[in-house]
Amino acid sequence: MHPHIDRILYTEEMIAQRNKEMGQAITEEYRDKVGEEGIVLVSVLRGAAIFMADLARCIDLPLEMDYMAVSSYGNGTTSSGRVRMLKDLSTDIEGRHVVIAEDILDSGLTLQHLLTILGQRKPASIQVVALLRKDTPNQIDIPCFQTGFVCPNEFVAGYGLDYAEHYRNLPYIGVLKPEVYAK
Ligand code: IMP
Ligand code: MG
Protein backbone atom coordinates (compact mmCIF):
# COMPACT_ATOMS: atom_id res chain seq x y z
CA MET A 1 0.00 0.00 0.00
CA HIS A 2 1.17 3.54 -0.74
CA PRO A 3 2.63 5.11 2.45
CA HIS A 4 0.37 8.18 2.14
CA ILE A 5 -2.78 6.05 2.19
CA ASP A 6 -4.34 5.48 5.61
CA ARG A 7 -6.62 2.62 4.56
CA ILE A 8 -8.05 1.09 1.41
CA LEU A 9 -11.79 1.52 0.95
CA TYR A 10 -12.31 -0.11 -2.46
CA THR A 11 -9.92 -2.64 -3.92
CA GLU A 12 -9.21 -3.13 -7.59
CA GLU A 13 -11.48 -6.21 -7.56
CA MET A 14 -14.37 -4.38 -5.85
CA ILE A 15 -14.19 -1.55 -8.39
CA ALA A 16 -14.03 -3.97 -11.34
CA GLN A 17 -17.08 -5.83 -10.02
CA ARG A 18 -19.14 -2.64 -9.62
CA ASN A 19 -18.09 -1.42 -13.08
CA LYS A 20 -19.31 -4.68 -14.55
CA GLU A 21 -22.68 -4.34 -12.79
CA MET A 22 -23.10 -0.69 -13.73
CA GLY A 23 -22.08 -1.40 -17.33
CA GLN A 24 -24.75 -4.10 -17.54
CA ALA A 25 -27.37 -1.74 -16.10
CA ILE A 26 -26.44 0.91 -18.69
CA THR A 27 -26.58 -1.66 -21.49
CA GLU A 28 -30.08 -2.75 -20.45
CA GLU A 29 -31.32 0.83 -19.96
CA TYR A 30 -30.28 2.01 -23.43
CA ARG A 31 -30.46 -1.12 -25.58
CA ASP A 32 -33.91 -0.28 -26.95
CA LYS A 33 -33.41 3.50 -26.94
CA VAL A 34 -30.37 3.91 -29.14
CA GLY A 35 -29.59 2.63 -32.61
CA GLU A 36 -26.31 2.55 -34.47
CA GLU A 37 -25.35 6.00 -33.17
CA GLY A 38 -25.27 4.67 -29.60
CA ILE A 39 -24.87 6.68 -26.43
CA VAL A 40 -22.45 9.51 -25.72
CA LEU A 41 -20.36 8.67 -22.69
CA VAL A 42 -18.97 11.87 -21.20
CA SER A 43 -16.15 11.93 -18.74
CA VAL A 44 -15.27 14.78 -16.50
CA LEU A 45 -11.51 15.21 -16.66
CA ARG A 46 -9.25 14.50 -15.16
CA GLY A 47 -10.49 12.38 -12.26
CA ALA A 48 -13.09 10.34 -14.15
CA ALA A 49 -10.93 9.37 -17.13
CA ILE A 50 -9.78 6.06 -15.64
CA PHE A 51 -13.28 5.19 -14.46
CA MET A 52 -14.80 5.95 -17.87
CA ALA A 53 -12.16 3.93 -19.69
CA ASP A 54 -13.00 0.88 -17.58
CA LEU A 55 -16.77 1.47 -17.57
CA ALA A 56 -16.88 1.83 -21.37
CA ARG A 57 -15.49 -1.69 -21.72
CA CYS A 58 -18.35 -3.02 -19.57
CA ILE A 59 -21.05 -1.49 -21.83
CA ASP A 60 -22.26 -3.68 -24.67
CA LEU A 61 -23.67 -0.93 -26.94
CA PRO A 62 -22.27 1.37 -29.60
CA LEU A 63 -20.90 4.43 -27.85
CA GLU A 64 -18.90 7.59 -28.34
CA MET A 65 -16.50 8.82 -25.70
CA ASP A 66 -16.01 12.53 -25.15
CA TYR A 67 -14.38 14.64 -22.49
CA MET A 68 -15.04 17.82 -20.57
CA ALA A 69 -12.85 19.50 -18.05
CA VAL A 70 -14.09 21.59 -15.19
CA SER A 71 -12.33 22.71 -12.10
CA SER A 72 -13.70 23.55 -8.69
CA TYR A 73 -10.90 22.42 -6.44
CA GLY A 74 -7.55 23.94 -7.28
CA ASN A 75 -5.04 22.08 -5.18
CA GLY A 76 -7.03 22.03 -1.94
CA THR A 77 -9.20 19.35 -0.42
CA THR A 78 -12.43 21.28 -0.05
CA SER A 79 -14.62 22.60 -2.84
CA SER A 80 -13.99 26.23 -3.75
CA GLY A 81 -17.68 26.61 -4.53
CA ARG A 82 -16.85 27.82 -8.02
CA VAL A 83 -16.90 25.66 -11.13
CA ARG A 84 -14.87 26.73 -14.14
CA MET A 85 -15.24 25.14 -17.59
CA LEU A 86 -11.76 24.39 -18.89
CA LYS A 87 -12.63 22.21 -21.90
CA ASP A 88 -15.94 21.65 -23.68
CA LEU A 89 -17.20 18.56 -25.53
CA SER A 90 -16.34 18.04 -29.19
CA THR A 91 -19.57 16.13 -29.88
CA ASP A 92 -22.90 17.78 -30.72
CA ILE A 93 -25.21 16.11 -28.18
CA GLU A 94 -28.52 17.42 -29.57
CA GLY A 95 -30.92 14.46 -29.80
CA ARG A 96 -28.37 12.11 -28.24
CA HIS A 97 -28.58 9.97 -25.10
CA VAL A 98 -25.82 11.25 -22.82
CA VAL A 99 -24.32 9.41 -19.87
CA ILE A 100 -21.97 11.41 -17.64
CA ALA A 101 -19.38 9.25 -15.89
CA GLU A 102 -18.17 11.09 -12.79
CA ASP A 103 -15.54 9.95 -10.34
CA ILE A 104 -17.03 11.39 -7.16
CA LEU A 105 -20.02 13.44 -6.11
CA ASP A 106 -19.08 15.64 -3.16
CA SER A 107 -20.93 18.96 -2.79
CA GLY A 108 -22.74 18.23 -6.06
CA LEU A 109 -21.81 21.63 -7.52
CA THR A 110 -19.83 20.22 -10.43
CA LEU A 111 -22.60 17.93 -11.62
CA GLN A 112 -25.30 20.53 -11.05
CA HIS A 113 -23.37 22.90 -13.28
CA LEU A 114 -22.73 20.27 -15.96
CA LEU A 115 -26.33 19.10 -16.03
CA THR A 116 -27.45 22.70 -16.52
CA ILE A 117 -25.00 23.38 -19.34
CA LEU A 118 -25.53 20.09 -21.18
CA GLY A 119 -29.29 20.15 -20.61
CA GLN A 120 -29.48 23.38 -22.64
CA ARG A 121 -28.14 21.56 -25.70
CA LYS A 122 -31.34 19.52 -26.20
CA PRO A 123 -30.01 16.01 -25.66
CA ALA A 124 -32.59 13.19 -25.88
CA SER A 125 -31.68 12.38 -22.26
CA ILE A 126 -28.90 12.87 -19.71
CA GLN A 127 -28.08 10.58 -16.81
CA VAL A 128 -25.26 10.50 -14.30
CA VAL A 129 -23.22 7.48 -13.29
CA ALA A 130 -21.02 8.24 -10.29
CA LEU A 131 -18.38 5.83 -9.09
CA LEU A 132 -18.49 7.37 -5.61
CA ARG A 133 -21.07 9.39 -3.79
CA LYS A 134 -19.47 10.98 -0.75
CA ASP A 135 -21.53 11.12 2.41
CA THR A 136 -21.29 14.93 2.47
CA PRO A 137 -23.68 17.03 4.57
CA ASN A 138 -25.96 19.32 2.52
CA GLN A 139 -25.03 17.63 -0.75
CA ILE A 140 -27.06 18.94 -3.68
CA ASP A 141 -29.62 16.33 -4.68
CA ILE A 142 -28.23 14.99 -7.97
CA PRO A 143 -30.13 11.98 -9.28
CA CYS A 144 -27.67 9.23 -10.23
CA PHE A 145 -28.74 6.39 -12.51
CA GLN A 146 -25.96 4.31 -10.97
CA THR A 147 -23.67 4.84 -8.01
CA GLY A 148 -20.66 2.60 -7.44
CA PHE A 149 -20.18 3.13 -3.71
CA VAL A 150 -21.28 5.57 -1.02
CA CYS A 151 -18.04 6.69 0.56
CA PRO A 152 -17.33 8.29 3.94
CA ASN A 153 -16.83 12.05 4.12
CA GLU A 154 -13.04 11.87 4.05
CA PHE A 155 -10.54 12.82 1.37
CA VAL A 156 -9.97 9.83 -0.89
CA ALA A 157 -7.42 9.20 -3.63
CA GLY A 158 -6.56 6.60 -6.26
CA TYR A 159 -8.19 5.16 -9.39
CA GLY A 160 -8.21 8.58 -11.06
CA LEU A 161 -8.79 10.63 -7.93
CA ASP A 162 -5.96 12.92 -7.00
CA TYR A 163 -4.60 15.17 -4.36
CA ALA A 164 -2.54 17.92 -6.05
CA GLU A 165 -2.29 15.67 -9.15
CA HIS A 166 -0.78 12.73 -7.26
CA TYR A 167 -2.11 9.20 -6.63
CA ARG A 168 -4.29 8.95 -9.76
CA ASN A 169 -2.45 5.80 -10.83
CA LEU A 170 -3.14 3.79 -7.68
CA PRO A 171 -5.32 0.83 -8.72
CA TYR A 172 -7.45 1.07 -5.55
CA ILE A 173 -9.25 3.92 -3.73
CA GLY A 174 -8.14 4.78 -0.23
CA VAL A 175 -8.34 7.47 2.41
CA LEU A 176 -5.45 9.88 2.22
CA LYS A 177 -3.61 10.42 5.50
CA PRO A 178 -4.64 13.92 6.70
CA GLU A 179 -0.99 14.78 7.48
CA VAL A 180 -0.30 14.63 3.73
CA TYR A 181 -2.48 17.65 3.03
CA ALA A 182 -2.14 19.34 6.44
CA LYS A 183 1.50 20.16 5.58
P1 IMP B 1 -18.25 18.60 -6.08
O1 IMP B 1 -18.41 19.65 -7.13
O2 IMP B 1 -18.05 19.20 -4.71
O3 IMP B 1 -19.32 17.55 -6.09
O4 IMP B 1 -16.86 17.91 -6.32
C1 IMP B 1 -16.66 17.04 -7.30
C2 IMP B 1 -15.21 17.01 -7.72
O5 IMP B 1 -14.31 17.30 -6.64
C3 IMP B 1 -14.88 15.61 -8.15
O6 IMP B 1 -15.10 15.45 -9.53
C4 IMP B 1 -13.43 15.47 -7.76
O7 IMP B 1 -12.61 15.89 -8.82
C5 IMP B 1 -13.23 16.39 -6.60
N1 IMP B 1 -13.26 15.67 -5.30
C6 IMP B 1 -14.23 15.70 -4.36
N2 IMP B 1 -13.92 14.92 -3.31
C7 IMP B 1 -12.72 14.38 -3.59
C8 IMP B 1 -11.88 13.45 -2.87
O8 IMP B 1 -12.15 12.97 -1.76
N3 IMP B 1 -10.71 13.12 -3.51
C9 IMP B 1 -10.35 13.61 -4.72
N4 IMP B 1 -11.12 14.47 -5.42
C10 IMP B 1 -12.30 14.85 -4.86
MG1 MG C 1 -13.58 15.36 -10.96
Brief digest:
By secondary structure, this protein is of the alpha/beta class.
Explained architecture:
With 183 residues, this protein is α/β, with parallel strands linked by helices. 23% of the residues lie in helices and 31% in strands. The strands form two sheets. The chain has a six-stranded mixed beta sheet. Strands 1-9-8 form a three-stranded antiparallel beta sheet. α1 packs across α2 (49-56). The longest helix is centred in the N-terminal third of the chain and has 19 residues, at 12-30. The mean pLDDT is 94. Magnesium ion binds next to loops.
Which features characterize this protein?
single chain; 183 residues; alpha/beta; binds inosinic acid; binds magnesium ion
Topology:
Blueprint: E1 5-10, H1 12-30, E2 39-45, H2 49-56, E3 63-71, E4 84-87, E5 97-105, H3 109-119, E6 125-134, E7 146-151, E8 156-157, E9 173-176, H4 178-182
Parallel strand pairs: 2-3, 2-5, 5-6, 6-7
Antiparallel strand pairs: 1-9, 3-4, 8-9
Bound molecules: inosinic acid (IMP) and magnesium ion.
The secondary-structure class comes to: alpha/beta
Q: What's the number of extended β-strand segments?
A: 9
Number of helices: 4
State the end-to-end CA separation.
21 Å
How much of the sequence lies in strands comes to 25-35%
Low-confidence stretches: none
Shape: globular
Strand order of the largest sheet: 4-3-2-5-6-7
What is the H/E string?
Answer: EHEHEEEHEEEEH
Q: State the helical fraction.
A: 10-25%
